Amino acid sequence: MKKRNFSAEFKRESAQLVVDQKYTVADAAKAMDVGLSTMTRWV
């Protein structure tokens, strides 16, 4: 599997789902199609 690179803007927008829009980390990860551990690092 190839490692995916995400822009800083994508990471910021993904983290804002949790911080600003009250998504759970798991729901935000699913919505943005990234792994749970990846999303956890960004938040």
TrEMBL record:
Coiled coil: none annotated. Transmembrane segments: none annotated. This is IS3 family transposase. SUPFAM superfamilies: Homeodomain-like (SSF46689). GO terms for biological process: DNA transposition. GO terms for molecular function: DNA binding; transposase activity. It comes from Shigella dysenteriae. Belongs to the transposase 8 family. Pfam families: HTH_Tnp_1.
